[in-house]
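re: that complex we talked abt at group meeting.

here r the seqs, copy pasted straight from the sheet so there may be weird spacing, ignore it
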Amino acid sequence: MNLKDRLIAKIREEFLQTTETLWNNEIRANLFTARAMLVTAGLTVLFWILSKLGVFSISNSQITWLVFQAVLELIIPAGICIWLKGERKWLKLLMLSLYTLVLARIEMVLTHNMVLSMVFPVLISIRYYSRTITSSVGILTILLTFISNYLSIIFHLGRIDMNMVTLPAGTVLQFTDTAVLREIVMSQGVIDYHQHWLYSLSNSYIPKLIMFSLIIYVCTEIAGRGREAIFEQQKETKDAERLATELHLAKTIQSSMLPEIFPPFPEHQEFDVYASMRTAREVGGDFYDFYMIDDDHMAMLVADVSGKGIPAAMFMMASKIMINNMSLLNEPDPARILEMVNQEIAPKNTAEMFVTVWLGILEISTGKLTATNAGHEYPFIRQNGKFDIFKEKHGFVLGGMENTKYQNYEIQLEPGDAVFVYTDGVTEAKNKEGDQFGIERLEEALNDSPELPVSGIINHVSEKLDKFVNNEEQFDDITMVILSYNGVTNMNKLTVEAMIENIPEVTAFVESKLEEIDCPPKIQNQIDIAIDELFSNIAKYAYTPDTGPATVKVEVEKDPLAVIITFIDHGQPYDPLTSENPNLSLPAEKREIGGLGIYLVKKTMDDIVYEYKNGQNILRIKKEIQV
Amino acid sequence: MLNISTNKENEQLVMELEGRLDTTTAPQLEEAINTSLEGITSLVFDFEKLEYISSAGLRVMLSAQKMMNDKGTMKVIHVNDVIREIFEITAFNEILTIE
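got the structure back, here u go
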């Protein structure tokens, strides 16, 4: 669909929506009018009974007939409307005009008593929220009032104004009932109808006209405003729906930015990482992250952005990406990384938001953890099997002030040691009594089950927290991250200068690993060939004309038994798998050696995968071992 | 690591290879061939003690074959499973004479 069609479709959809809203309102307004007419009919009957009982002194022989007619004319259209559930366009015309007509007829007889009732239709028409309908009914009302006044006088139906009656001189009037008066006047008097009409016009109709006009004007304005309110409400509803959708999307994007697959680095047996995050609102300000900076450094962080909701989420995304980028572009130096991120954020931070961050970088081969803290909660460190809070020196929050300096500190992690970091949502979680979970309870929970695997420790703390909070509403995001160091039990990695001369060292290293699993000699030879081909490629091309390091990692998989060898270098991106297969049908004179090595590896190994990640060429081969 | 022992009888040269013919050792063999093909019409590679051969070794074998195509014959004997498979994969068995 092109843009024009989409626009037209959108306009049409909005038009249909508006039309539908108005139509729904009209149906309800029709039913309302019908009810009003039924009530009016009921009241008319009530007045008739009261007048028959003599409570009112209405002297008109036609009153019964009038009431009968009026009730019919009110009940029939109202009944039709209710029967049709209000769902016809013409119902409003039928009902409002008949309603006005009926009232005008009543007013014709009861000129003074019933004058107020003439505004009923106008008032009821407001419910349609339409200036046109209300003003039309208003004009009809004024017209019919005029006509009813006129007819009332010409056919002397209503009250007779004695000023307009000429009686014979000396006539004495004695009466207690208007009906008597009427009879006397009709039998003896002479009424100047023309004079009477003029008199009525100036003294009765014109004041009514002015009052009605004012009332009709006010009602028309209210109706028009009601219509606008409907549109505004509709727009607000739509905006609210859109906002809800956008919030949901924002949450999806946000959570997809956080690592959620555990273990995140299954190839690294040297450490375990686990994290959990529970957001208090739809989108939150907490975040955590962990990522490999290079083959020997893993960064881990937990952070809490000031504020909540969309602004916090946006600030969180920016901070997360910046910390991540700075980590990958620079030395594994947490304090320096945060300083650089702060220099990026702080000067542009007009919204005065900030983020507290704990950032640690683990040197995998040694267990050395270098960390820094930008105004974040103290970490817990498990050494010798027990978690203790580690009160390091804090730096200022990130984004708060330019030129903030951060300090690194180092912790030597031994196998079995762990680091637990969290956000204040954990310690400040409250129970019904308003008590906070607090540091002591957290420490207790951590030490309750220190032998659990990392996921178990966090789940255990979560359970304790839930038990403490006991269904009280969560006010802040709750985030926990744990790192446990297993140590390098079995060095399965070798890093050497990428040079042809080092191939025998690499081969010997891999062979020593293969011997541990009793690899058959033939497979060992095939693997040796693969190493020769792949490592010589790296040595020749990765860093030309310079040289650089290359790492070879050996991993063993079980069921089925297989060996996986990974070659990693930081050289120019190069995917050897893209080279074309050599033409094997050529005679010796035309044969070329290029591409033959990779072809050989592809053919003898069970799997070969290349990826370029974090500035590294990573080539992985897999060979199954059938003993 | 590669040991090369050459045995020359008249116009026949037998080269016994021991160890591995790969990127590091191939230049060694290449040099040995280049210096001893003078007047040779029959070149024999004895692979009995050769563990494996990589593409760098194949390159040397190919250039040797090209040279011998002009001068006489060349054959490879006592080829083990691994090497035979490599010759097959790379279709070198079509080029070389393997016994």
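couple things i noticed - Residues 13-159+192-235 of chain A form one domain. The CA atoms of residues 26 and 128 of chain A lie 6 Å apart.
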